[in-house]
Structure formats: C-alpha cells, structure tokens
Amino acid sequence: MKRLLVAITLVAASALAAAASPVRIPEASARYRFALEREAVARFGLDAPIARIAAQIHAESTWEPTAESAYAQGLSQFTPPTAAWLPTVCPEVGPPDPWDAGWSLRAITCYDAWLLQRVDGATVCDEWAFALSGYNGGLTWVYRDRARASAKGADPARWFDHVEKQSGRGAAHMVENRSYVARILRRFEPAYIAAGWPGEAACP
C-alpha cells in the first residue's frame, strides 16, 4: 500500500512539473501530418482524433522515426512482438516494419481503434485513457486495474481519480503508464489542437 501511495504521489508530481513547461511541437511532425490525417480519417472517419494521435506519437518518439528504446522501435514505438502480432488483427497495415514511418502511422491508428473496441468508459476521455494505458502497458493490465478499482470501491468506468490510482503493477511501471496517459490527453493533445491540428480535446 505504501508503495502504491508513493507511486500516486510521483504521478501527481510528474504531472505538475510537466504542466509548468510549454509543449514544443517538433518541426518533424509537419513531414508526417498529411499521412497521419489520411490514416486517421480512413480508420475513424471525418471526425478522426488527429490531434490526439499526433499527441500520442509526440509522447512515443517526438516524431523521430529512428527512435529506439530498450524495448520498442520507430515513430510509434512498437515492440517487436506487438509489431509481429498486429497484422493478424490489422492485415491492411502490411508486413511489420516499425522503422518505416508509413507502417508506423498505419499501425498506431489501427491499434488504437482495436483497443478502443475492447474498452468502455463513462466518457470519451475515459475510453481513450483506457486505450492509451493499454497501448503503453498492455490491455491485460487495463482489465486487471479496472477489476482492482472496482474491488476497492472506485468507479471502473472512470480513469482519472479512479482506475488510474489502482494497480497491482510495480511502482515504476505505474508511474510511467499513468504519466503517459495524462501527458497525451491533458497536455499534448490541447497543444496540438492549439497549433491547428484537427480534433477536439477528449478530456476537460
């Protein structure tokens, strides 16, 4: 319990620190904007959340197609196992190639849509929070966290102040996952909308 409280405190502190600095949208984003808009509209329709997915890519790689971490690769930071699996549910993305920016844009829009179909929430904000948490840490953990929240008397259909505060995963993983969701929905997406990217903010 103590470790969980420490993790929650770290998430809050991280969010406050991040909110204090302005979001700088990388110039490289302009290179991929049209392709992202095309893929997002094809997947979500004319009201596609383009600014939201752009914000997600910002969180993943800051629009660097050669970005690499210990576990993930490319513009959308797919792990090799997830990249290999994705064409089984989204065959239209083509053979897995996280290093190819076009593949990464097709993959992130398809994977987001796939995740959204498997979560439900009280609001659009909650549904995207669950989907983003699943993108970052796995859908199985989202289900576990929601069950844990329900058992603790929190609302399993709401993310902020409910499910986000309940998790059985390690403190470091929890901090990273919760920060990821908050940065995209409450910091980066509004910045992209303000910069003229299409979409409406999911969260107040």
UniProtKB/TrEMBL annotation:
Keyword Cell membrane: no
Keyword list, A-Z: Signal
Protein name, as recorded: Transglycosylase SLT domain-containing protein
Segments forming domain Transglycosylase SLT: 53-153
Pfam families associated with the record: SLT
Lineage: Bacteria, Pseudomonadati, Pseudomonadota, Gammaproteobacteria, Lysobacterales
Matches recorded under SUPFAM superfamilies: Lysozyme-like (SSF53955)
Signal peptide location: 1-19
Superkingdom of source: Bacteria
Gene3D superfamilies tied to this protein: 1.10.530.10
Species of the source: Tahibacter soli
